[in-house]
Amino acid sequence: EIVMTQTPLSLPVTLGQPASISCRSSQSLVHSSGNTYLSWLQQRPGQPPRLLIYKVSDRFSGVPDRFSGSGAGTDFTLKISRVEAEDVGIYYCMQATQLRTFGQGTKLEIQ
Amino acid sequence: HLQLQESGPGQVKPSETLSLTCTVSGDSISNNNYYWGWFRQPPGKGLEWIGAKFYSGSSEYNPSLRSRVTISLDTSKNQFSLSLSSVTAADTAVYYCASDIFRSDWCHGGQWGQGALVTVSS
Questions:
Q1: pLDDT, tens only, B71-85
Q2: Could you tell me how many CB contacts below 8 A there are between chain A and chain B?
């Protein structure tokens, strides 16, 4: 099983400031197809998860461009350029290269 | 616009079988551009993948749950379902149906239902 490790687990951020979440996998996420299947999901309080980023850096439909993803191999990052109040929630990385596993989640709050 | 909605009993007795249905609207479950799956989230905890299935029949399951899980598709009702046998209190969770969507490549977790809380209790 591929283990996903996120840091930090708690992320207090000031409105308008940038935020960054890291995700590390226990083995390379490069699929046999050559693609890397690493997604980022946002879960607002009381809501289902919502896909933000897929295949490391591709933004899903309707996702604001203040969200961006980067990384390769085993190390990945989600960045929010300027945090807004609606960004409060828990962010998960998820690998789909070998079945599916999630990171523990990072709770973003406004300080 | 694809939409998913879970339905089923909110409470199941220990040792019995949990059964949930996901009703799909906005497209057909026989469209091979979708991979239909189930996830769960115990109260206050993180997300866990249960398994997924294509219309073509191929499927994958979480190894830790494989012996107890079945996912099936009903094209006549445009639904897919989850069956989890021999449940215990550890299976208490919000259960989500979700789909991967193929748009030039796979968007894993592209669409989610609202979730259904299932409590295992006698």
A1: 999 999 999 999 999
A2: 67
Could A96 and B100 be called an inter-chain contact, meaning their C-beta atoms sit closer than 8 Å? Answer: yes
Nearest to B109 by CA among A83, A62, A26, A100: A100
Task: Tokens 């079988």: give the residue.
Answer: B17
pLDDT tens per residue across span A46-102: 999 999 999 999 999 999 999 999 999 999 999 999 999 999 999 999 999 999 999
Residues 6+ apart with CB under 8 A from A110: A12, A13, A14, A15, A83, A85, A88
pLDDT in tens, A69-79: 999 999 999 99
Q: Interface of chain B against chain A, CB under 8 Å? A: 39, 46-49, 52, 60, 62-63, 96, 98, 100, 105-115
Give the residue from A107, A111, A110, A105 showing the smallest Cα distance to A4. Answer: A105
CA distance B94 to chain A (A): 10
The tokens of A10 are what?
């708690």
Rounded distance between C-alpha atoms, residue B77 and residue B57, angstroms: 17
What are the counts of helices (DSSP H) followed by strands (DSSP E) for chain A? 0, 11
Query: Residue A87 in 3-state DSSP?
Result: helix
Chain B residue numbers touching A35 (CB-CB < 8 A): 105
Sign of CA dihedral B27, B32, B33, B39: positive
How many Å apart are CA B101 and CA B108, to the nearest integer? 7
Residue B103: how many other CB atoms lie within 10 Å: 12
Q: Which residue of B has its CA nearest to A100?
A: B49
